[in-house]
Amino acid sequence: MQKLIILNSREIRKIKELLIEDFGYFPSGEFALLESENHRIFFVNRDIAKIELENLRIDKVGLYFGELRETQFRLSKEGAQFLAHCAKQDKKKLINYVELTKEEVKKYFLGVDLERDLGPKSNLIILHHDDLILGCAQYKERKILNFLPKTNRGEVIV
Predict the structure, then answer these.
(1) Strands laid side by side in the 143-145 sheet
(2) Model confidence band, residue 1 (pLDDT cutoffs 50, 70, 90)
(3) CB contact at 8 A, 124 and 74
(4) N or C: which end of the chain has fewer CB within 10 A?
(5) Per-residue pLDDT tens over the stretch 67-99
(6) For residue 61, what are the CA distances in angstroms to 3, 6, 9, 137?
(7) Do 96-158 and 1-95 fall under one CATH topology?
(8) Predicted confidence band at 8 (pLDDT cuts at 50, 70, 90)?
(9) Under a CB-based contact definition with an 8 Å cutoff, are residues 158 and 106 in contact?
């Protein structure tokens, strides 16, 4: 059972600023963000505020959006897909949105870090191949560090 708290507008603003800095976009709309004890953030309908969460045993709720760290917000695979979908609907262009080749996708799904020169700045990126969003990764020192969970790894037919 996880303990979840509803984030206030100041805490949501911090996440919004981090996402705008890294990806140039934050979704608009009627939603709430919940935070677990291990700083995982979940995207839910705002009506959740009508429920007394402390009296419930909750296993999972909402969309696992990502993990909040001191200086960054690392999107989950589903969070990256959601962010890209919302940006597309709002006709907004994401930054740090990196296209992978077919060969790079195969390596990525095997858990390999990818060699790529994306400039000197170290930052988070969203990976995609054609219209398929693969997830979020860290770019650092000419490498795309693979954050793909082991349960999602394996051979891929692209």
Answers:
(1) 97-99, 123-129, 132-140, 143-145, 114-115
(2) low
(3) yes
(4) N
(5) 999 889 999 999 999 999 999 999 999 999 999
(6) 11, 12, 20, 24
(7) no
(8) very high
(9) yes
The ranges assigned to domains in the chain are 1-95, 96-158
Domain spanning 96-158: CATH 2.30.130.60: yes
Q: How far apart are CA 18 and CA 67, in angstroms?
A: 12
Secondary structure (DSSP) of the chain: ---EEE--HHHHHHHHHHHHHHHS----SSEEEEEETT-EEEEEEGGGGGS-GGGS--S--SEEEEEE-SS-EEE-HHHHHHHHHHHHHTT-PPSSEEEPPHHHHHHHHTTPPEE----S--EEEEEEETTEEEEEEEEETTEEE----GGG-S----
What lies within 8 Å, CB to CB, of 11 at 6+ separation is 33, 35
Mean pLDDT of 54-60: 73
Residue 107: count of CB within 10 angstroms of its CB = 17
CATH number given to 1-95:
3.10.450
As to burial, measured by CB atoms within 10 angstroms (0-12 exposed, 13-18 middle, 19+ buried), residue 6 is middle
Residue with tokens 């390999």: 112
